[in-house]
Structure formats: C-alpha cells, structure tokens
Amino acid sequence: MTLYTYNKSTDAGEQRLRACLRMLAAGDSLLFIEDGVYAAAQMGKGTDFRNMLPADVVLYALAPDLAARAISAKIPADFFKIDYSDFVRLCLEHPRVVNWN
Amino acid sequence: MTAAVFEQPVTVLFCGDGVWQLLSGQNGEGLQVKTLARIFPAFDLYDIREIQVAQSSMTERGLHPGDLVVDVELVADEQVRELIASSKTVFVF
Amino acid sequence: MSSFSLVVHGAPYTSQASVSALHFCRAALAGGHTIYRLFFFQDGVHNASALIVPPQDELHIPHAWQQLIQQYGLDAIVCVSSALKRGLVNDEEAARYDKPAGNVLPGFTVGGLGQLIDALQHSDRLLNFAP
After folding, report:
1. Closest by Cβ to B85, choosing from A25, A100, A101
2. ipTM of the complex
3. Which phi and psi (to 5°) does residue C96 adopt?
C-alpha cells in the first residue's frame, strides 16, 4: 500500500515513466501531478503504459494541475480527479509515499 | 550517508539512469568537476552494506556488474517492490 | 491529526516543485495537521533568498513561504552545504566568509542534513518535491 506521485510528461522520458509503473504493486495508488498530468492523458485503458499496471492500482490526477493545463477532459474516465486536501488525505491513508521525481 | 551516521538502517537502490553513476573509469578532471563515482566506495566506511541495483535498469543500458565501481546486489523488479514496501521512508534522488 | 515534513528540491520559478510544496503545506495546515519541518535542499535553497524580485503579477514564492512560516511558527531549514555553494548565506556566514551581506529571509534557519534525518524519524509522512 504505497502512494506514488509522478510529475513528468513523457517527453521527459518514457523509460522514466515505465520505471515508475514497474514499481507499482497490487493495492498501490498512483497520483499524477505537475507535468505528470500530461503522462496521465496517455494512460487510457489498453495503452502499453496502462497494461504495465496491476489491475487494482487506483489512479489519480491533481485537479489544479489539470486546470492549469486545460487537460482535464483528456484524462481517462477511471482516474479520480482530486484537490490538495485529498492529496494530503491520501498520503495518510497509505503507510508510505514515494515521490517518483 | 548522513542517515547511516544517525544509525538509521539504509538501503541504497540504483535504478533507471541512476545506474550510470556507478560506472567505473569516470574522470571529471577535464571538466574541472568532482568525479562522482569516487564517493561510492565510501559507503563501506559508513557501514552501508545494502547497495542494490535494479537488474532491469542494467539490462536496458547494456551494463554488467563488472562495469561498476562497487560490489552490488542485482535485484529483480519484484525485489525492488518488496524493498519499497518494507521501508518506512523512500527518498528518490 | 498527523505530522508532515516537506523536502523542497526545486528553485522558485524554475520548476513547479516549490509551488506544489507550498500548496500541499497550506492544505495540510488547513486540514489541522502539523508541519514538523520544511527542509530546503539543493536548488530548493533559493526559496529562502531575500533578493528575489518577481514581476508584480506573479506569486512571490519566497514571501509566500515566509508568511506561512511566520503565521504557523514553522521550522524551516535551509541546507547549509546546498546554500553556501549557491550563494545563500545568513549574516553570520556572510561575516565568516567575508561576503558583503547575508541574504537569507527572516523565518528560514540555516541547518544541516542531520535535521533532514531527524525529520524523517519524527514525522508521520515525509514528502519530496523535486523538479
């Protein structure tokens, strides 16, 4: 039960994103923040990135970062869009947080 | 190393492009910069014995254990997941 | 209620890291949690600079940190080894190294890596905000 955050677009390296995705285990959560929300837009069901994840990983994107980039509508439907207070709560609901920078 | 001084049990994991830092033969003199790899043998002085490298990162980059400046334990992705799951705090540098 | 420590690795106006940390810090405090320590590390030390002058229509990031630090009495540490080599010095170090002035904003304290390790021992959660 680990909360991961990811903060870079795929231009910063698809290998970097894959390295993070490989770390996720069943029951973990993954929150896309900052330019990571651009990567989230490429995480739709059936994509190679998505297929790397165990089925029960919960996916989140930080709403203020989506709004700033006008990308909210491009985020796959099964992502939860959350604000900073939810981010704080998620950190506490998971025994550890890994900021995959 | 500071964490080890404060007697916190530390495991150092190199993954992704981080594994390049361990390549032996580095020499920063031409650029007048510190040679990064020289610091890693000091892990031993700080009693940091758990130095792990992600096998998948090595394979992706065509690297072998003999290319590195320190003795490391190669670990599979599953072991990395277990390491993270068993750690209180994870720093990503 | 829980305690957080935040490690800020990014310089202001270079990446989003310091602004993200600022918003997280505000949200944690608003939620009734405590901030055990803010630790400004590597390029993050620039958040403590007293010499930053952003355009008037932009958030003044160092002042926003300072306001939060003073309002809530937060412990805000600037890593000394990161700071010295990036030109961030308090008055004491300015005198020691014969520099014309110190430039660390009031509210920030220059300290060592030991305080980072102490933070990870004593906080419920420690988060890293990096570029």
Report:
1. A25
2. 0.97
3. -65, -40
